[in-house]
Amino acid sequence: MMEGQTTDRIKIYVKNDDCFVWRVEDARRIREEWRISGTYIGSIANNTQQNVFNSLPLHLSKDEVTFLLSKVDGSTLEIEPTDEEVENFQKTREEDLERQRRMMEENMRERDTKNRKEKKRKTDENGSSAVTADAEEEDKKLDDTECSRESKKDYLAHVVGNENIVLYTQPQREVPPTEFRWNYPGDWKEFCKYSVWLNLWNRGYFIGSAAKFGGDFLAYTGDPFQYHAHYIVLVHTDGAIKASTLVAFGRLGVAVKKSPVISSVVERKGGGTMWEDKEYERAYTFVNARLLLCRPFFSKSPSARSSIMAFRTSSLLLVLVGAAIVSAGCPSFLKTCGDACYSDDLYCCVNGVLTQKLFCPTSGDGGNNGNNNGNNNGNGGDNGNNNNNNNNGGGSADGRADLEVVNNCGVDLFIEARMGGAGSPIPGESVTVRNAGSSTGYNIPDTGASGTRFWAKYGCDSNGRNCLIGDSMQYWPNPPGGCPDGGCHPPIDSLFEATWGCKPGAGCNSMNPTTWFDTSQVDGWTIPYAVSLFGETGKCDCDGNSCKGLTYLDASKLDLAKCPSNEDASWNGRFPDNGGHSMSNLDLRYIKNGQVVGCMSPCKKLTYGAPSGFGLNEGTVPAIYMCCPTPNPANCVFDQGCISSEDCRSGPVGNTQFVNAVHQMAPGVYSYSYDDGVGLHACPAGTVKYQMTFCPKGSASYPINA
Questions:
Q1: Where is the segment annotated Disordered (predicted)?
Q2: What are φ and ψ of residue 687, in 5° steps?
Q3: CATH 3.40.50.300 fits 403-705, yes or no
Q4: What mean pLDDT comes out for the span 541-554?
Q5: Which of 156, 308, 417, 690 is deepest in the core (most CB within 10 A)?
Q6: Equal fold, 11-81+171-179 vs 403-705
Q7: Domain locations along the chain
């Protein structure tokens, strides 16, 4: 250890522009005290299940090192370890190589024994046991020769002891530690990247690398050991982004279930703000976003570069749904809505709430399902007609709304229609009351709509609030939002989910011609339903060679009387209890006012908060076997809260009472993650229309007494 250095100082070793932390205590400190996670890249002993772990050293990015140097008092960078540390590392490495060599020899002996037994079994079946015995004795003699043993030893040493594989041994010593300087960030692009990193850190995120996703950073809302990343952040430093790149980045976000974010930096100089605006090609008006470029004005002299903190910036996050930007102040060409900046080509501000343009209020009728009072004056409003309530589909789509929701129950329902991650209402109202026997229609804009959800609420007051079931999202507008007394309900509603494609004739149809939809019971169910399809249904569910066609989805037999009241989530007693709760006798019924109004899936029962559930993390045992989370399919690690599709299907969830009940009552409907049911469907946009009927003819009573 160097003179004057104390053991409580964080030691970061640098070699070839890579930075490593080798001490366990240092790795713990920077994670717990400074929210720096780094990446563990080492290996540990070969024991059961430990192949999924990584260990020291902890690899740090240059941004993480720069931050630590600016924040941690007494942190040091060392170009070389001490002689004692080198000696200990070399000794440990040699012991590990010898241990691996012995393990390889044992594995080879086991393999040889297994091969001989298999060979003997096959020859015995053919009546050649005498020949086999002679051959086995000859093999044994050969194996005992000195030549064989030396050959094995050389082979094992070559495979396991390959010096090129060991990257982190004794660092080079060309530069004395006293002369080493940390020169990152050293140019304006690096300053931009670090500024975005710092801004994300100041927002409370853990930050990891997004290289495998084609971005710069992954932003986590909590420790990556316990949370999944929410955002893929790409730092853009110059030039306009091609529309094809933007679309590809957006599609990547959809595929990996993360929000793609393009970030840029704008400096404050002399009290003003410098902006440079690049507008996307007019051919792509549906993403007509403005890009704010990074143009720093700092001095490029070495003395100026040595003072990182003198470079003051504020970064703006440009989310790919449009030009909504989180910022403390808006440039002249953008308007303000609450704490967001927006382009009036893409958004409007309704009572302080940012709303997509295609759902903004207009002076004309513009509506498609009645006004905010739920009366019959809007287009496609209440028709009081039950003639189509049990239509099995397949007929003409002429004159139909894109989606018609029919209430065939014997009670009044409120229909919720929401869209997007924020759950904003579609197409402009939060709830619509539907008397028993009536319906309401929704006409989707020609350019489509993403992330829409439609479901029914029961037992509500006259304003569609304080329901017995269905208040699974906060009330709109949000803010103020809010939930009924006791909190929002678990999201177990029977619902229709769809991302609507562009209709024929719309400029975007060639790029987005498909509507994707599903009806899923992964979280549970409430009201029995059926979905009928009309129009070009023969073009649904195509695989490139042929189309299966689809006219009817039948979940009318969903019966709350068959909701398990003694579900076993213990996997045959492997996990008998958790936090004082028995895992072998779960009551999945959702009961309000003495009525069963819903059925929770085992996953939702385990993970939803009290009093409806147990509040377990879905990535922990036993919830992981019921929920089957896959936050990172490319690197699915069980101990990081991920389970593969194969392990999920072979686990206990497929044999639960809940899954068996759904399969029996609603064949082809998803009942758990990675279910082999049909689940997601695809139909041509605009030429196929949908009708969702709650309580279709022949369905079970709703609700039922507990």
A1: 84-147, 365-397
A2: -100, 0
A3: no
A4: 87
A5: 690
A6: no
A7: 11-81+171-179, 85-160, 188-322, 403-705
**Can you tell me whether residue 592 is helix, strand or coil?**
strand
Cβ of 499: how many Cβ atoms within 10 Å?
Answer: 18
Cβ neighbours of residue 98 closer than 8 Å, sequence gap 6 or more: none
- 596 pLDDT above the threshold of 90: yes
CA distance 695 to 389: 9
- DSSP-derived secondary structure letter, 383: -
How far CA 58 is from CA of 22, 31, 65, 642, in Å, comes to 7, 11, 12, 22
**What mean pLDDT comes out for the span 320-348?**
52
Report the 10 Å Cβ neighbour count for 446: 17
Residues 143 and 112 sit within 8 Å (Cβ to Cβ): yes
pLDDT digits (tens, 9 = 90+) for 166-186: 323 333 333 333 344 577 777
Is the model more confident about 413 or about 305?
413
Token pair recorded at residue 665: 């009552």
Q: What's the CA gap between 605 and 559, in Å, rounded?
A: 18
Q: Are 400 and 689 in contact (CB under 8 A)?
A: yes
- Report the alpha-carbon distance of residue 459 to residue 209 in Å, rounded: 48
- What phi, psi does 29 have (nearest 5°)? -60, -50
**Between 349 and 400, residue with greater pLDDT:** 400
Q: Is-above-0.85 flag for pTM? A: no
Residue 158's pLDDT band, with cuts at 50, 70 and 90, is very low
* Residue 627 pLDDT > 90: yes
DSSP state of 547: B
Q: Are 519 and 693 in contact (CB under 8 A)?
A: no
**Which helix (DSSP H) or strand (DSSP E) does residue 315 occupy?**
strand 313-319
For the segment 643-700, what is each residue's pLDDT rounded down to a tens digit? 888 888 889 999 999 999 999 999 878 898 888 656 788 999 999 999 999 999 999 9
- Dihedral (CA of 701, 394, 531, 460) sign: negative
Measured CA to CA in angstroms, residue 158 lies from 111, 151, 165 at distances of 20, 11, 11
CA 530: distance to chain centroid? 29
For residue 245, give every residue at least 6 positions away whose Cβ sits within 8 Å of its Cβ, in sequence order, or none. Answer: none
Q: What is the DSSP letter of 520?
A: B
Helices (H), 596-706: 602-607, 623-627, 645-650, 657-665
> pLDDT (tens digit, 9 = 90+) per residue, 479-493?
677 888 878 899 999
**pLDDT of 151 over the 80 cut:** no
Using DSSP, state whether 263 is helix, strand or coil.
strand
Give the Cα separation of 213 and 254 in Å (integer): 12
Cβ neighbors of 639 (< 8 A, separation 6 or more) are: 49, 52, 53
Q: What does DSSP assign to residue 490?
A: P
Please work out, in degrees rounded to the nearest 5, the angle formed at the alpha carbon of residue 42 by the alpha carbons of 39 and 48: 110
pLDDT in tens, 111-122: 888 888 888 777
State how far the Cα of 686 lies from the Cα of 136, in Å rounded to an integer: 72
Q: For residue 536, what is the DSSP state?
A: S
Tell me the CA distances in angstroms from 325 to 317, 504, 539, one per residue in order. Answer: 6, 32, 39
The pLDDT value given to residue 8: 61
Please provide the CATH number assigned to the domain covering 188-322.
Answer: 3.40.1350.10
For the stretch 192-222, pLDDT in tens is 788 788 878 887 889 988 887 778 889 888 8
Amino acid at 158: H
What are the two backbone dihedrals, phi and then psi, of residue 250, each rounded to the nearest 5 degrees? -65, -40
Reported as a pLDDT band with limits 50, 70 and 90, residue 22 is: confident
Element (H, E) at 131: helix 129-143
Q: Are 215 and 198 in contact (CB under 8 A)?
A: no
Fold of 11-81+171-179: MutS, DNA mismatch repair protein, domain I (3.40.1170)
Count of residues in the chain: 706
- Residue showing tokens 């409120």: 414
